Amino acid sequence: MYGVWTPEQVQAAEEPVLARTPEGALMRRAAYGAAGVALRMLGERTGGVVGRRVVVLVGAGNNGGDGLWAGVELRRRGAAVTAVLLSPDRAHPAGLAALRAARARVLTEVEPAVTAVGRADLVLDAIVGTSARGGLRDPAPLLVGAADTARVPVLAIDTPSGVDPLVGTVPGDGSAVTAAETVTFGARKPVHVLNRARCGPVTLIDIGLGPELPEPTVRVLDAADVGARWPVPGPTDDKYTQGVVGIAAGSATYPGAAVLASGAAALATSGMVRYAGSAADEVRAAWPEVVATDHVSDAGRVQAWAVGPGLGTDDAGAATLRHVLDAGVPVLADADAITLLGADADLRARAAATTTLVTPHAGEFARLVASLDDPPDPAVDRVTAARRAAAELGVTVLLKGNATVVAAPDGRVLVHPAGSSWLATAGSGDVLSGVAGALLAAGLDPVDAAGCAAFVHARAAELGSAGSPVPASHVQAALSDAIRSVREAV
Ligand SMILES: NC(=O)C1=CN([C@@H]2O[C@H](COP(=O)(O)OP(=O)(O)OC[C@H]3O[C@@H](n4cnc5c(N)ncnc54)[C@H](O)[C@@H]3O)[C@@H](O)[C@H]2O)[C@@H](O)CC1
Ligand SMILES: [K+]
């Protein structure tokens, strides 16, 4: 597990460290770490360092200072360094003096700078870091565009410029750095987990902030965390003691959702899966181990319900949802169940009164929060949107997307940054529902159930895909390998 801290938290943590270290020491630590990553990238991509062309895009603040000092280090190692000053009169004075003394080229005019970027082996993006506000300012978009056009790899210093460090979105006209890699200092910031596509792999450099950092704003589970939480039957367990999950999903028109969710539940945990609904025949045919009936009222005892995929939003769907919300066990509500919750205050009150985990995509989220004052918008800030929905509706929220956000009513937040978007495929959510429902039935807290389910779901997509599209039934089929891989990581 690792933590993520807001720019504000990081800046506050830097203050006491700055006060007790010699002037400029923190920046030199950061820059030395950045230069190390740049040297590795040059070695990997060009086979050397000496004479390789590195262009540093230098902004007005300390992020620019990091870039200048990293340039000094690269110059020392023999690279041909060019610094492009985007705000020439505000460039970090000590860093600029040191870079000039190291006999690097310094440019302030746009035209030669664009040419230099286009010919570079590596660009260091030190335009702006944690104090970024709004979109990139001229002439930065031109230089960032030149690197993109020439396909020059960019190493983002601290954060990819043009991407909001706190929420990970690209404001303004959409110009922003797409980094091949990012090197960050002291602590990971939200952009690193909310916008992986812009950051690339992130290297964290220790600059001594550890003791000063408060509780992180967001946490990220790793494979070992998920493996350690995954339920494993003990010597005295039988099929009932491990938690029975009930799946209330699918219909005669949409039996696929029922088959995907029930099968995923059967693969996720040992013990028992019950299915209740009008796709009982199809579920039985595909998964003979699932105990299937036609209606939730005669399904027998379960320790959690997963309700919603393919359920329908008519009166029968609402009655099923009401039944499971009143069953006194944790409930996972997805798909049509979320639409029903959004439309019905009475159902929302029942959901808040029990332990409920909802798993909306963007459209379902909008319906879910439509009744709230000033409904939160994930397009503006995913973490805040999920956190507010959880707190105000009294349910745990798993907001799907390239970065999955899990928020609990008590304010805890997990993020799962996906490595790809192959999971954006029909039926994939049904598989997630089955897995998360099974984990709730096994007794996991909703945040852990959601976080572990999201992780294994994404891992199954990776294993099932290996670079090609992966239909939901293949994600389902890869669940066993995914669970094995996280258990092996413990
Ligand atoms: N405080 C410290 O001692 C340390 C700071 N570090 C670096 O310092 C950075 C933060 O430095 P600063 O607080 O000076 O701020 P930045 O360097 O992030 O930004 C500086 C200035 O850039 C301008 N700016 C804001 N938004 C912009 C945009 N969208 N496009 C173009 N220009 C924009 C503003 O004038 C802003 O004040 C961190 O990201 C990190 O790289 C590291 O060196 C570690 C130590
Ligand atoms: K940057």
Automatic annotation (TrEMBL):
Domain YjeF C-terminal intervals: 222-486
Top-level lineage group: Bacteria
Residue ranges of every copy of the YjeF N-terminal domain listed in the record: 10-215
Amino-acid biosynthesis among keywords: no
E.C. no: 4.2.1.136, 5.1.99.6
Positions of K(+) binding: N63, D125, S161
Record: residues binding (6S)-NADPHX: 62-66, 129-135, 158, 257, 310, 361, 430
Binding annotation for AMP: K400, G401, N402, A403, T404, G429
Gene3D superfamilies in the cross-refs: 3.40.1190.20, YjeF N-terminal domain
Cofactor binding notes: Binds 1 potassium ion per subunit.
InterPro entries noted in UniProt: Carbohydrate_kinase_pred_CS, CARKD, Nnr, Ribokinase-like, YjeF_N_dom, YjeF_N_dom_sf
Family: In the C-terminal section; belongs to the NnrD/CARKD family. In the N-terminal section; belongs to the NnrE/AIBP family.
The protein's role, per its UniProt record: Catalyzes the dehydration of the S-form of NAD(P)HX at the expense of ADP, which is converted to AMP. Together with NAD(P)HX epimerase, which catalyzes the epimerization of the S- and R-forms, the enzyme allows the repair of both epimers of NAD(P)HX, a damaged form of NAD(P)H that is a result of enzymatic or heat-dependent hydration.
UniProt-recorded name of the protein: Bifunctional NAD(P)H-hydrate repair enzyme
Source organism of the structure: Actinomycetospora termitidis
